[in-house]
Amino acid sequence: MTASPPAQRLTLFDLPLDIVSLEQTLNILGGWMFHAPRAPHTVVTLNPEFIVQSRTQPDFVRAMQQADLVTADGVGIVYAARQLTGTEVPRAPGMDIVRGLMARHGKELRVYFLGAKPGVAEQAAQNAAKEYGIQVAGVHHGYFGPDEDQRVAELIAAAQPHLLLTCMGGGRQEIFNQYWRQVLNVPVTIGCGGVIDVLAGTAQLAPEWTRKMGVEFVWRIASDRKRWGRAPKLAQFVQMVQAEKRRK
């Protein structure tokens, strides 16, 4: 394993993107957790919505620019990298990273579950411990405001996890991870959206065939009315890519 990030990093809309496969990602994060002096690292799983959202959120932009590793979460990012840089970037989605780390490290891995509604993180932690044998370092719901950030960060630091799953929605989770990284002092902190809900069984993972084709976001939007509001952002992202391609 290696504790070093990949040498190749692209820039999409002023945001970094590492050319790194899922297997390489797991190796890098494993190195940070177990084969290097304890130091905080943040991971971003970049998707089209993050890029659209970041246009109006400078704090979000800074959090992603300062991340130690930025992977391509969805097919939209692969498409943008191909269109704007001519580079084929492999995907390393958040759900696959989390499951891969748990499966690979099992009982030696201490995980803190942060996010979702009260009670959901507890269920996710129980399910993960049963399936992968991981140690549960702690749990905390995601329904707290910025005025409580320091308290929560200090709770997590005291638990000394190897891995922190921050699932509080795009922007909020990345800003929290980056701003409090020194207090947290967690070897790997990753913003991973709905992963806790999936692990808890309160949200359904997209079918395997959609994930292999890289179109699971279409399935999610079509199958859940709550996600219908995301469709305009995806359309806006495609327009952004095409406009940037013409400009270049």
UniProtKB/TrEMBL annotation:
Keyword Phosphoprotein: no
Record key words, sorted: Glycosyltransferase, Transferase
The keyword Glycosyltransferase is assigned to this record: yes
Protein name: N-acetylglucosaminyldiphosphoundecaprenol N-acetyl-beta-D-mannosaminyltransferase
Species of the source: Deinococcus xinjiangensis
Gene transcribed to yield this protein: tagA
